[in-house]
Design goal:
By secondary structure, the protein is mainly β. It has one helix and four strands; from the N terminus they run E-E-E-H-E. It has a four-stranded mixed beta sheet with strand order 1-2-3-4, with no helix packed on it. Helix 1 links the parallel strand 3 and strand 4 (61-69). It is globular, with a radius of gyration of 12 Å. The mean pLDDT is 87.
């Protein structure tokens, strides 16, 4: 967030209206897929390293064996 708080949390703090419908999370740091085994970091943004993502993400995540640079639109 602008205050420096994590955007991806261990547990949602807002009322849920569609549990289980999110399959992909895209941030300025990278791209996560939402799988039965948990969050998987699939892509890293240019100039971002794994340590930065870990520091700014409060949820646990798995690093994909096929981690690649984030694709630009």
């Amino acid at each position: 967030t602008k205050k420096g708080d994590a955007k991806i949390l261990r547990q949602c703090t807002l009322p849920l209206t569609g549990k289980g419908v999110v399959h992909l999370i895209v941030t300025e740091l990278g791209v996560f897929s939402v799988c039965p085994e948990g969050l998987v970091l699939e892509e890293l943004a240019e100039g971002v390293d794994l340590e930065q993502v870990q520091a700014k993400t409060s949820a646990d995540f798995i690093v994909s064996k096929n981690l690649k640079p984030m694709r630009l639109a």
